Amino acid sequence: MVYAxxxxxxxxEKVEVGSTIIVNRVAGxxxxxxxxxxxxxxxxxxxxxxxxxxxxxxxxxxxxxxxxGPKIVIQRYKNKTGYKARQGHRQDLTRxxxxxxx
Length: 102
What we know:
The protein is mainly beta. It is about 5% helix and about 65% strand. Strand 1 and strand 2 form a beta hairpin. The longest helix has 4 residues. Belongs to the bacterial ribosomal protein bL21 family.
C-alpha cells in the first residue's frame, strides 16, 4: 500500500492514488494538472521523511472542479452599546483527484 501526506492549501492531507480531496483554491496548469509537495511517503514498510528524498517524490493531481464552501456567518455584538455587526464568508475550494505518486 502506497500513500503520501502532502501539503495542500495550508493543510496536510493523506492521499492515495485515485482518492479525491477538497483543498483551498489552487490553480492548475492549462491541462488542469497540479503537483503537490510531499511531507511523508509510505511505501509498504518503508517510511520516508527525509527532505532530500522527498524532493524527488512527485504527487500529481487533476483538478476536477472549483467550488465554494458552506456559508459561515460571523456576528459581533457588544452589550449595552447598540453595536451589532454581521458578515458572511464562503471559502473558495478546489476538488482534486490524485493521479500518481512517484
